[in-house]
Design brief:
The chain is α/β, with parallel strands linked by helices and 431 residues long. The protein folds into 3 domains: 3-155, Rossmann fold, CATH 3.40.50.10640; 162-282, no CATH class; 288-430, no CATH class. 58% of the residues lie in helices and 12% in strands. It is built from 16 helices and 10 strands. The chain has helices at 31-38, 51-59, 62-71, 86-99, 116-131, 157-175, 179-196, 206-223, 237-254, 265-282, 288-301, 305-325, 335-348, 359-370, 382-397, 408-430; strands at 3-8, 17-21, 24-28, 44-49, 75-79, 105-109, 135-143, 150-155, 373-375, 378-380. An 8-stranded mixed β-sheet has the order 3-2-8-7-6-1-4-5, sandwiched between helices. Strands 9-10 form a two-stranded antiparallel sheet. The longest helix has 23 residues, at 408-430. The chain starts with a strand and ends with a helix. The relative contact order is 0.06.
């Protein structure tokens, strides 16, 4: 892991001036000298040079000489194009990316160079964060202000944070997963803690982070099929949703408005979208069956096919158990409940010719047959839907080790069609 300073050199010959960075002010001719001084140097220095910039770098030589005096063995010069067309821009992209090593701590100076090149640098850094596991220590810009004697060096890393947050938002929008969102909010909480010395519930980011963390518990429960309505918050989708509700109420109550600064704002925007989505699926779910149906729809929408097939199979069992075969019983989360549930599963898979099922199982099966309903213009029972869903669920859960494994595209089609039939069955049953 090395601290890696990277800069694009311009063609302007500046006069010595005062540079300010945080609480330090000092005179330098070049912003590159100033930044390296203020950040206490670097292990590697990469200077990107267009043809025009290279002439200045070689001809004037004072910046080159100054840097080589302190960092001679650490300096690498990289020739780049001007970036006047797509080919040149992609060439620059490749040159910057290839100059970055695994696990580098990158400090990027975007003060000089054509305005398009610093924009390109942002994209490369994000790319390298994913593929080379780099961290970004700072993105610095020497801000010239007319008639001001001091040039302020700004840290623009917040723009990287916003881009990261946008990626996290896309991850949720596309896949229903908030893990990255939680990690980023935790990082902001830690940064605020370092600035304020407050790391507990008094940290201004704590209420928002806690709510996001509970949202992550909710999606974690969905991803691992924690469908039982009565278990703990990390063992039940419903309990996780309730815990999320409790935490999000504290956001407006506990975050002081004057402290909700630019670092928290992007999280609030995504969080608002995420909580609306969670409510859309789970707010009205008041039973195991309703929660199961909500989860199946979530899984279809977010391409969680294996989880969706599991949720569908188990929700059919629950519906047959609680709404048909043992309707009216006072259900408790006890041994009797699960013994009955096992009998329901056997009844759903019973065959007329079976000689092993008990009379009790046959009676349950007969009752299911009595409850056939018109779905897709034909009479079907829950057994029909259950067995179609279970076949595909078994295929996927057994890793395809079957005599005739399905094609991967079959699973979503099966999930959607069986779910549609199940919804129509319930509607007919209730009518």
């Amino acid at each position: 892991m090395a601290r890696h300073y990277m800069a694009m050199l311009g063609t302007i010959s500046p006069e010595p001036k005062q540079y300010k960075f945080k609480d330090k002010t000092k005179e330098f001719k070049y912003v590159q000298e100033a930044i390296l001084n203020f950040i206490n140097g670097a292990d590697k220095i990469t200077i990107f040079l267009t043809k025009a910039a290279k002439k200045k770098w070689v001809k004037e030589g004072d910046l080159k000489a100054s840097l080589e005096k302190k960092y001679k063995d650490a300096i690498e010069e990289v020739d780049i194009d001007d970036g006047n067309n797509d080919d040149e821009l992609m060439n620059i992209f490749t040159k910057i990316y290839e100059s970055i090593d695994e696990n580098d701590e990158v400090i990027f100076d975007i003060t000089n160079g054509f305005r398009t090149l610093p924009m390109l640098a942002f994209t490369v850094i994000n790319y390298a964060k994913t593929l080379k596991n780099i961290t970004v220590e700072g993105i610095y810009y020497g801000a010239y202000i007319k008639d001001e004697p001091v040039e302020q060096i700004l840290d623009l890393s917040i723009y990287m944070d916003i881009m990261e947050t946008a990626f996290a938002a896309n991850y949720f929008v596309s896949y229903g997963n908030v893990k990255r969102f939680e990690e980023l909010s935790k990082n902001v909480k830690i940064k605020l803690g370092q600035e304020t010395g407050i790391y507990d519930e008094r940290n201004p980011m704590t209420p928002l982070y806690d709510a996001i963390s509970k949202l992550n518990d909710l999606t974690g429960c969905i991803n691992t099929c924690r469908g039982n309505y009565n278990k703990g918050k990390k063992r039940s989708i419903k309990a996780a949703y309730d815990a999320f509700n409790n935490k999000r109420k504290k956001i407006t109550e506990e975050i002081p408005k004057q402290i909700v600064d630019e670092r928290a704002r992007p999280f609030e925007l995504i969080f608002k979208y995420a909580e609306e989505k969670a409510d859309q699926y789970f707010k009205s779910a008041e039973s195991n069956v309703e929660m199961g149906m909500a989860v199946i729809q979530w899984c279809i929408d977010y391409e969680l096919i294996q989880q969706g097939l599991t949720a569908l199979r188990e929700t059919i069992v629950t519906y047959a158990h609680e709404n048909i075969l043992f309707k009216g019983e006072n259900f408790k989360n006890d041994k009797k409940y699960y013994d009955n549930r096992n009998d329901v599963e056997r009844a759903l898979t019973h065959k007329e010719e079976s000689t092993t099922d008990t009379d009790e199982i046959k009676k349950l099966y007969d009752k299911l047959m009595e409850n056939k309903r018109p779905v897709n213009e034909k009479e079907i029972s829950l057994c029909n839907i259950y067995q179609k869903a279970t076949s595909k669920r078994n295929d996927i859960n057994h890793f395809g080790f079957r005599e005739k494994p399905a094609e991967f595209t079959d699973f979503k089609e099966n999930l959607e069609s069986c779910y549609k039939e199940f919804k129509e069955y319930i509607k007919c049953q209730e009518d």
